[in-house]
From TrEMBL:
Start and end residues of each HTH araC/xylS-type domain: 78-176
Name used for this protein in its record: AraC family transcriptional regulator
SUPFAM superfamilies per the UniProt record, alphabetical: Homeodomain-like (SSF46689)
Coiled-coil zones: none
Organism, scientific name: Runella salmonicolor
Domain of life, source organism: Bacteria
Entry-linked InterPro entries: Homeodomain-like_sf, HTH_AraC
Keywords per UniProt: DNA-binding, Transcription, Transcription regulation
Length: 187
């Protein structure tokens, strides 16, 4: 049985979800971002228990098919932006999402905008902006290296996009004492 879970954005999320499901007595076959496979189907009462347990960790069990599809899209985007796999990042976003979710990109784009109130492109920009913030805080890469890592066509384009989202340049952000990063599940 597949369960779709909102707000899973990292490997720690996968660990917590696995632990909670196993604590409830479920045999977990796989845990991926946003998706869990149980060996046996869960009853309605068990699903309610799972939902309550997950909510305690700010996860949400999704039952609506549209929400499930949107969560798959979000998860794919998070993987695309935050994983260090160069092959993924160099692939066109629309092709990657259509392949990953196994749906037509135009349909995904329309549905995403309808459900989330923003476009897929804006969601990607928001994710990339948070990734840039993260990398600036770590202070291990130059801005040019960050632009290349996140597949920006130029450093100027990264700076322009960053400023349009945050209201400041990457250099101004780097000088702040209180770095205003958002958790991935709040994007």
């Amino acid at each position: 049985m597949k369960l779709y879970i909102k707000n899973m954005v990292c490997s720690r999320c996968k660990t917590v979800v696995r632990q909670e499901l196993e604590a409830l007595g479920h045999e977990v076959l796989t845990v991926d971002l946003g998706e869990v496979t149980l060996k046996k189907p869960a009853t309605e009462a068990q699903l309610e228990s799972i939902s309550e347990r997950l909510l305690a960790h700010d996860f949400e069990l999704l039952s609506n098919k549209k929400q499930q599809l949107i969560e798959l899209v979000k998860t794919a985007i998070v993987e695309l932006v935050h994983q260090q796999n160069d092959g993924l990042r160099r692939q066109k976003h629309s092709d990657y999402l259509a392949e990953k979710v196994n749906r037509d990109y135009r349909y995904l784009s329309t549905l995403f905008t309808e459900v989330e109130g923003i476009t897929i492109e804006q969601f990607i920009i928001n994710q990339k902006t948070e990734r840039v913030k993260e990398l600036l805080v770590y202070d291990e890469l130059s801005l040019s290296q960050i632009a290349d890592l996140l597949n920006y066509s130029s450093l100027a384009y990264l700076s322009t996009q960053f400023k349009s989202v945050t209201g400041m340049t990457p250099s101004q952000f780097k000088q702040l004492r209180d770095k205003q990063r958002k958790s991935l599940d709040n994007l």
